[in-house]
Amino acid sequence: MEIKEKISIEYQRIESIVTEENPLIDGAIKDGVLNENVYRHSKHKCCFILKEPFDDFDDEAEYGGGWDFSVILSYWEPDKGRRDSTLARCAAIAYSINNNFCDTENLTAEQLKEGLSMCCWINLNKTPSRSTTLQNASFKKKAELWSPVVHLQLLDASPDIIIFGNTWDMPFHEYPFTDVDSTKKKYTDESGKWWAAITKTTDGRIHVNTYHPGRKGIEYETMVVNGIKDFLG
Pairing between strand 195-201 and 206-210? Predict the structure, then answer.
């Protein structure tokens, strides 16, 4: 059985558990590699591991879901939205890393869309949530439920650079890559407000432990990009 088939089977198995427990949810929100061709041919395959996808909710419960995250590539218009959105931050970082670590501040809408298409986007919980995730027992239970899928996604995507957006301590299920602690270097932005700890794995991948990218400012992007550039250099 091929790994993509395994991912599909696990998705469906866990999705059925979630929808049975949450009748307002239409289904899981599929994530992973957003554009197979662009991602596989990028110089540095970048993966972002975040908590869970934002979707519809009211005062009582979350609802929605049942869609594929890659559809964002067909309608996202970064020049008409917030530059401080999570989508734009991740897109800018991925684009810069794959284009000689260029400055991210003045990237065009087309460059941001290209950057997003290079991403492997993994949410630890794959069902709809609110805009702010509390890292509590309820969330950890959701992440544990989906962890077999996350494990398979990482093996399939085989990223070169994995950026954890406040999720460093959250992989629950047989995380497949092992850090070399002696390689750790810590980077900060000019103000010292934001930081990233970067390590190498035993098989040469790069781990970046840092803040969630939403609304953190251009200085956050610069810190992550320059930190990775220095670490690779």
Answer: antiparallel
Rounded-to-integer distance, Cα 95 and Cα 39, Å: 11
Q: What is the distance between the terminal CA atoms of the chain, rounded to a whole angstrom?
A: 39
| Sign, CA torsion 35/65/123/228 | positive
Which residues, 6+ apart, have CB-to-CB distance to 35 below 8 Å?
70, 73, 117, 118
State both tokens at 6: 């395994």
Between CA 167 and CA 114 the distance in angstroms is 25
Q: pLDDT tens digits for the chain (233 residues)?
A: 799 999 999 999 999 999 998 888 889 999 999 999 999 999 999 999 999 987 655 555 666 788 999 999 999 999 998 888 999 999 999 999 999 999 999 999 999 999 999 999 999 999 887 655 566 788 889 999 999 999 999 999 999 999 999 999 877 778 999 999 999 999 999 888 899 999 999 999 999 999 999 888 999 999 999 999 999 99
| Chain mean position to CA 56 | 20
pTM of the model: 0.94
200 strand-pairing partners: 180, 206
